[in-house]
Design goal:
Blueprint (H helix, E strand, L loop, with lengths): L1 E8 L18 H12 L3 E5 H7 L8 H9 L7 E5 L18 E5 L5 H9 L3 E4 L7 H10 L4 E6 L1 H9 L5 E6 L26 E8 L2 E7 L1
Parallel strand pairs: 1-6, 1-7, 2-3, 2-6, 3-4, 4-5
Antiparallel strand pairs: 7-9, 8-9
């Protein structure tokens, strides 16, 4: 499986403010680029923290991408995946609507009634890991379902875990020309943080996009 992480941060590395509300960091050209990565992915993953904060739908915006996928014999939109150890995704979350298939990755600690509720809402639930979702195990299950190209849009807890598990193949990071600040504001990679053996990335490309910079790394 090819795992492509994409995110937008402020110049001080924040994904959002301490209020954890969605902040428009990208400009129109960058959002169009994000839509294209989604269009070329089999599935798009976020953590439940992002679902609770942003309520994203993770569907394609541009009809040309939908048409191109259908011409290739693919589903109109990529599948959506939520990493949600305790099955907290609300049933009215947009990510569970019928625009595309949705997988919810949970751990053994997820309450059975919550799993039943999510399945009744149309999600396919994948159990992997004891207390937290085990991404290596969950990704094996997604591969069996045909997910070979996985895009990850955040947030910081999930992205840290994926770097920690050495599962990231590619990172595109849009750095918008703004300062958000705040010691409690989410950053690109939160979690416990590394104290040694810091992941080293290989910078492939630098490009000016909108009023910011797009950095592309091989990981
Ligand atoms: N600017 C950008 O590009 C983006 C910004 N965001 C922002 O990020 C914030 C949300 O990020 P976070 O709070 O970090 O939440 P998150 O989206 O990373 O979700 C974290 C949750 O995922 C679940 N999870 C399951 N297995 C896990 C594992 N193995 N490792 C880590 N988490 C696991 C846990 O329940 C955990 O609480 C929001 O403020 C949102 O607006 C989110 C996506 C993109
Ligand atoms: N690439 C990017 N740039 C920004 O400025 C952002 N605020 C985000 N946020 C993430 O984009 C997703 C939105 O999903 P919908 O298209 O609204 O369904 C979601 O993952 C946000 O957290 N991304």
């Amino acid at each position: 499986m090819h795992v492509h992480v994409n995110a937008a941060t402020s110049v001080d590395g924040k994904l959002s403010s301490r209020r954890r509300e969605q902040i428009k960091i990208s400009g129109d050209n960058d959002f169009a680029r994000v839509d294209e990565i989604r269009a070329n992915s089999d599935a798009v993953l976020v953590g439940v923290g992002t679902v609770l904060a942003d309520d994203p739908q993770l569907a394609l915006d541009a009809s040309k991408h939908v048409a191109a996928r259908e011409a290739r014999g693919e589903s109109p939109h990529p599948a959506r995946v939520v990493a949600d150890s305790r099955a907290r995704t609300p049933v009215d979350a947009r990510i569970l609507n019928d625009v595309a298939e949705t997988y919810v990755l949970v751990s053994e600690a997820a309450p059975a009634d919550r799993i039943d509720t999510l399945e009744a809402a149309g999600a396919t639930v994948v159990v992997a890991g004891d207390e937290r979702v085990s991404f290596p195990e969950a990704f094996e299950s997604l591969e069996v379902e045909g997910v070979e190209r996985l895009m990850v849009e955040g947030g910081g807890e999930v992205i840290f875990s994926l770097f920690s598990d050495e599962l990231v193949d590619e990172l595109t990071l849009y750095v918008g020309s703004m300062v958000i600040g705040g010691r409690d504001a989410p950053t690109l990679a939160d979690g416990e943080g590394f104290t040694e053996q810091f992941p080293r990335l290989s910078l492939r490309d630098v490009e000016r996009v909108d009023d910011g910079v797009l950095l592309t790394y091989d990981c």
